[in-house]
Each structure stands twice: as structure tokens, then as C-alpha cells.
């Protein structure tokens, strides 16, 4: 069974914002299409996006992050720079139109990889999170954060085994088991800090059972009963 709370209070925006998280090899990509299809079948208009990336500029930053060696704080700043552009150009406009945004990774990844993995100060990341994710609005600025995060939790040794069979590693995937153990602990820390937002998926199960958990989580939150947008009366 997934560990998942019922829906959090509806935020002051029209659309629903979901993020998918987990260490490399946890199985996120294998379930993205299923998640989008389940939501669409329930009436959502889904905008599938990813981090780092999601806009032309942020995709250029992604290429730097994945393939160029750099200082850990530089990594964190680039991840947040890409995120700001992603929010302003892609995520917020989609949410304002009432779409459901599904992002393959978001800020939890920066806490997990740059914070817990690379040792960048957690409080500095919390400050950046507030600064970068506050966007202008007609009434007052809004803090933009996912309504729900599906966290694929898998022991790092199993993830490494799966990845070894799957693909040529990028700069992050080539890291040691010790690094991914820290990254996994970073995700656990974020989940502990926001239990109402996180839905933990036990990813150490056959793929069909993982898919069932994902569905249960979406259903438990009420997302498979249709979009959360309130009706508009003339
Ligand atoms: N539940 C599972 N059991 C066994 N292998 C899996 C499972 N889920 C995914 N895989 C395999 O593990 C590898 C990594 O999965 P992927 O979805 O690419 O992970 P991620 O996107 O989290 O890095 C792929 O080869 C995929 O086919
Ligand atoms: C969003 C984000 C990703 N990353 C890393 C995690 C991943 O190793 C990598 C890209 O993620 P991902 O898209 O999951 O890689 P792939 O397409 O190979 O499955 O970027 C960070 O280090 N910090 C961040 O803030």
C-alpha cells in the first residue's frame, strides 16, 4: 500500500500541480505515461513536464547540469535558475488555465541531490525555495509548490542494479552508492517535513504493483474523480 494522506486544502489556484520524485532508477519514467493517462481518463488536461528543463532555456541549463563538472552550490543555483523560468513560462500559466501539471522532478530533487547528496546547506536551499517559487499575482504573491508529490522509494542498491542493465549513466547516475544513500535520506527528510504533500510509493515491487499503488494514491487524493477546478457559473 502507498503511504498517502487525503487531499490537502485546495490552494488559491485553478489547476493541480503534481511532482514525481525518487533516486535515479527508482522507476519514475516507467510510470509517467500511466499517471498522465489515468488523470486524463478522469477529465484532467495534463501538461507533462520535467526538471531540470521544461522551457527552452531551462533545457539548456539541464544539459549543463547533466554533463558539465561544477561546484555544488553552482549546481544548486542552476537548478533553481531553471526552476524559476520553468515556473513562470510553463507551470504557472498552465495552472492558471486549470490544467494539471505533472513534473518529473521538482524542488525536492534539489534538496535530495544538492543538499543531502552534495552537502549544500539545507537552510540556504529553503531560502532559495521561497525566493524562487514566489511568483507575482494580481492579489498577493503566491508560493508555488506541488499539491502532491509521488515519491518512488527504492533501496539505492536495487536502483543501481536496475540502472546498470538499463542505460549509459549521466553525471548523476554515475555517482557512488554512498551518494545515492544520502540522496535517498534527503528525500526521506523532505517527506518527513511535509507528510501531507508526500505520497510514498514502495517502488521495490513488480512494475504492475507499483502502478496499482500509484493509482491508489491518485484515487485516495480524489484526483481520479476529476479536476479540482470549481465550476464557473455565468
Ligand atoms: N518495478 C520495477 N521492477 C523492475 N524493474 C523496473 C521497475 N520499474 C522500472 N524498472 C526498470 O528499471 C530501470 C529504471 O527505470 P526508470 O523508470 O527509467 O527509472 P527513473 O526514471 O526513476 O530513473 C528501467 O530499465 C526500467 O525498465
Ligand atoms: C531537478 C533536479 C535534478 N537533479 C538531477 C537528478 C537526475 O540525476 C538528473 C536528471 O533527472 P532525470 O530526468 O530523472 O534523468 P533521466 O532523464 O536520466 O531519468 O538531474 C539534480 O541534481 N537537482 C535537481 O534539482
From TrEMBL:
Coiled coil: none annotated. GO terms for molecular function: ATP binding; dTMP kinase activity. ATP binds at residues 22-29. It catalyses: dTMP + ATP = dTDP + ADP. The keyword Transferase applies. It comes from the Bacteria. It holds the Pfam family Thymidylate_kin. GO terms for cellular component: cytosol. InterPro entries: P-loop_NTPase (IPR027417), Thymidylate_kin-like_dom (IPR039430), Thymidylate_kinase (IPR018094). GO terms for biological process: dTDP biosynthetic process; dTTP biosynthetic process; dUDP biosynthetic process. Keywords: ATP-binding, Kinase, Nucleotide biosynthesis, Nucleotide-binding, Transferase. Residues 20-213 form the Thymidylate kinase-like domain. Phosphorylation of dTMP to form dTDP in both de novo and salvage pathways of dTTP synthesis. Belongs to the thymidylate kinase family. This is Thymidylate kinase. It comes from Lampropedia hyalina DSM 16112. The lineage of its organism: Bacteria, Pseudomonadati, Pseudomonadota, Betaproteobacteria, Burkholderiales.
Amino acid at each position: 500500500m502507498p503511504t498517502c494522506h487525503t487531499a490537502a486544502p485546495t490552494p488559491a489556484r485553478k489547476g493541480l500541480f503534481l511532482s514525481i520524485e525518487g533516486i535515479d532508477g527508482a522507476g519514475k519514467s516507467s510510470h509517467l505515461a500511466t499517471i498522465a493517462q489515468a488523470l486524463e481518463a478522469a477529465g484532467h488536461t495534463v501538461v507533462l513536464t520535467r526538471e531540470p528543463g521544461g522551457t527552452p532555456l531551462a533545457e539548456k541549463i539541464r544539459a549543463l547540469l547533466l554533463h558539465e563538472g561544477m561546484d555544488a552550490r553552482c549546481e544548486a543555483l542552476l537548478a533553481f535558475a531553471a526552476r524559476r523560468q520553468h515556473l513562470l513560462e510553463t507551470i504557472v500559466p498552465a495552472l492558471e488555465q486549470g490544467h494539471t501539471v505533472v513534473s518529473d522532478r521538482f524542488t525536492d530533487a534539489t534538496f535530495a541531490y544538492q543538499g543531502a547528496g552534495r552537502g549544500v546547506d539545507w537552510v540556504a536551499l529553503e531560502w532559495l525555495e521561497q525566493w524562487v517559487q514566489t511568483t507575482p499575482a494580481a492579489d498577493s504573491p503566491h508560493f508555488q509548490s506541488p499539491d502532491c508529490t509521488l515519491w518512488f522509494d527504492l533501496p539505492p542498491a536495487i536502483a543501481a542494479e536496475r540502472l546498470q542493465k538499463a542505460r549509459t549513466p549521466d553525471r548523476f547516475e554515475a555517482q557512488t552508492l554512498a551518494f545515492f544513500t544520502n540522496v535517498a535520506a534527503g528525500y526521506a527528510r523532505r517527506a518527513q517535513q511535509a507528510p501531507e504533500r508526500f505520497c510514498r510509493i514502495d517502488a521495490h515491487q513488480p512494475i504492475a504493483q507499483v502502478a496499482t499503488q500509484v493509482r491508489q494514491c491518485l484515487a485516495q487524493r480524489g484526483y481520479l474523480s476529476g479536476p479540482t477546478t470549481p465550476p464557473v457559473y455565468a
